[in-house]
Design a protein that fits this description.
Distance between the termini: 43 Å
Order of helices and strands: HHHHHHHHHH
Length: about 230
């Protein structure tokens, strides 16, 4: 399965990364001489995990919003940006000499993530559905669906649609754009100037909350072709 399935590859890589991270922590605690090598292997395992997880969505060609290289870029940049944002308060408490470097990296990666996520939002807003009632039925001419197809709720009518209004989607979108990108940058920059640990912590908390909203929006924005049939209510 791992030869053809990105999900199977993720299942293999995930425990490998967790194990490598554990060994790295143990090696750091015991001051092992192979610490740099273990660190590099852990970093490679992390990169492989990013790749496998992102490609699960990129490979779903029938979901146009996901089937783009921008999905992979966003996974990498959003993941590394939040990682460095978390590293800042940790460095402030345990290794102050690294704070400047980590703040610079966190801000740079957050700006890069803003550019790539913004590009994906613009792209998705311009997409036109490839599937329609006409293409599904093969009937020539104009076909209009008047009923849902099910007289009661089912898995297909509930699990592939978010159930939120367009206004609700817009609020989530602008909410995560604010929480993931500008607010953490302001907190990080201000924390660096004032040398305040709580501002670094606030940067991570706000960004993490925004990333939860971003992931929800990522799934909600996907226009599942099956909803052409199951989401039309008379």
């Amino acid at each position: 399965m791992w030869r053809t399935s990105w999900l199977s590859r993720e299942v293999i890589v995930l425990p490998a990364f967790i194990g490598a991270a554990f060994v790295y922590g143990l090696a750091n605690h015991l001051k092992w001489g192979l610490l740099p090598l273990i660190g590099v292997l852990t970093l490679l395992a992390c990169a492989a995990l990013f790749l496998c997880t992102a490609m699960i969505y990129v490979s779903l060609k029938f979901l146009q919003e996901w089937a783009t290289f921008l999905t992979l870029v966003n996974f990498i940049l959003l993941g590394t940006a939040s990682g460095f944002t978390l590293a800042v308060p940790l460095a402030s408490a345990l290794a102050p000499s690294l704070v400047d470097l980590y703040v610079a990296a966190a801000i740079a990666l957050t700006l890069g993530a803003l550019a790539s996520r913004g590009a994906s939002l613009v792209r998705n807003a311009r997409l036109k559905p490839k599937s329609s009632v006409q293409s599904a039925t093969g009937v020539k001419g104009r076909v209009v669906q008047r009923s849902q197809g099910f007289t009661a709720g089912s898995f297909n009518t509930k699990e592939f649609f978010h159930g939120t209004t367009r206004r609700g989607l817009a609020l989530v979108k602008w909410g995560f754009l604010l929480a993931v990108f500008p607010l953490p940058i302001v907190f990080l920059a201000t924390g660096l100037v004032l040398d305040e640990l709580w501002l670094f912590i606030a940067a991570f908390v706000v960004q993490y909350a925004g990333l939860i909203a971003e992931r929800w929006f990522f799934f909600a924005q996907a226009n599942h072709p099956q909803n052409i049939y199951y989401q039309a209510i008379s």
